[in-house]
Design brief:
Blueprint lengths: L2 H21 L3 H12 L2 H22 L6 H21 L5 H16 L12 H18 L3 H9 L5 H26 L8 H24 L2 H36 L1
Helix pairs in contact: 1-2, 1-3, 1-9, 2-3, 3-8, 3-9, 4-6, 4-8, 5-7, 5-10, 6-7, 7-10
Length: about 250
C-alpha cells in the first residue's frame, strides 16, 4: 500500500470506530466494505479483525461496568459451535455473496414472529444467534446488522448494549483472525506497521465517541441505530446485486 492509501485507511478507521463507539454498530460494516473493495478477501478479513478487536476491546474497557456477562457467555457457546463447523467446511464466499448475506440478515430478524424476536436474555436465543452470527462472521467478515438487531431487542440501556456487544465482538473477531490467518488454505498475513496504525486509529475513534454517547437519550440511541442498520444493510443488498449483474453480463459477453 502507498503512504497515501495507508493514511486514508487510518482516517477511515478513526471514523468507523467513532461510529461504532457511539452506537455499538455500523462502523465495522462500513470498514469491511471498503477493505473488500481494495484487498483480497482473506487479507481484508485479517486487517478488519485486528481493527475491530482493538475498537471493541477498548470500548469494552471504557464501559466495563455495564457489561452483561450472561449474554456474553451464552453467545460464546454459539461462537464455538460455529468455529468447529466452519473449520471443517473452510468455505470462503465470493464478494457478492458475502455482501448479500450482510444485507439481508437484519431484515430477516425483523420479520420473525413476536415470540421469536431477538432477546439477549434468552439462553437458547443467545446460543442460536451466536452460532449464526459467527457463521456470518467467517463468511462475510462481520456478523453485521443481525447482531446489532439482536442486541437492540434487549431491555438494556444504551451503555449496556454497547458494552455487552463489544465484549462479544472481541471474541468473534479473534475467532475470525484465527480462521483467516491460519485455518483456511489461502491464509493471509498482515504488515505489523499497518496493524499498529489500525489499533491506534480504532482506540482514538472509540475514545472520541464516549462523551457523545453519554449525552444521548435512550430513544435517540435506538432510533438512530435502527436507521443506520437499515441504510447500511440496504446499501449492501444493492451493491451485491450490482456485482452479480456485472458478473452475469461478463459471462453473457463471453
Amino acid at each position: 500500500m502507498s503512504p497515501v492509501l495507508i493514511a486514508a485507511l487510518g482516517l477511515l478507521m478513526v471514523a468507523t470506530a467513532f461510529l461504532s463507539g457511539l452506537f455499538g454498530m455500523a462502523g465495522g460494516l462500513i470498514l469491511i466494505g471498503v477493505l473488500l473493495a481494495i484487498l483480497p478477501l482473506p487479507a481484508a478479513m485479517v486487517l478488519h479483525a485486528i481493527t475491530q478487536m482493538a475498537s471493541n476491546g477498548w470500548r469494552a474497557v471504557l464501559w466495563r461496568r455495564h457489561i452483561r456477562w450472561r449474554p456474553v457467555a451464552v453467545y460464546l457457546i454459539g461462537c464455538a459451535l460455529a468455529l468447529g463447523l466452519w473449520a471443517l467446511v473452510r468455505y470462503v464466499p465470493d464478494k457478492p455473496v458475502a455482501l448479500l448475506l450482510l444485507g439481508v440478515t437484519p431484515f430477516m430478524a425483523r420479520l420473525l414472529p413476536a415470540g421469536l424476536r431477538p432477546d439477549p436474555d434468552s439462553v437458547w436465543q443467545g446460543a442460536i444467534y451466536g452460532t449464526i452470527c459467527m457463521g456470518l462472521m467467517l463468511m462475510t467478515g462481520v456478523s453485521g446488522p443481525l447482531l446489532d438487531t439482536f442486541f437492540l431487542g434487549a431491555r438494556f440501556d444504551r451503555r449496556s448494549i454497547v458494552a455487552t456487544k463489544a465484549t462479544c465482538q472481541v471474541a468473534s473477531h479473534l475467532t475470525k483472525l484465527i480462521y483467516f490467518g491460519g485455518i483456511i488454505d489461502q491464509a493471509a498475513s498482515l504488515d505489523p506497521m499497518l496493524a499498529m496504525i489500525a489499533v491506534m486509529a480504532s482506540m482514538l475513534g472509540t475514545t472520541l465517541a464516549r462523551r457523545l454517547l453519554e449525552s444521548m437519550s435512550e430513544q435517540q440511541f435506538r432510533t438512530w441505530a435502527n436507521r443506520i442498520i437499515t441504510v447500511v444493510a440496504s446499501y449492501y443488498i444493492l451493491y451485491a446485486g450490482w456485482l452479480m449483474l456485472i458478473a452475469q453480463r461478463s459471462i453473457a459477453a463471453e
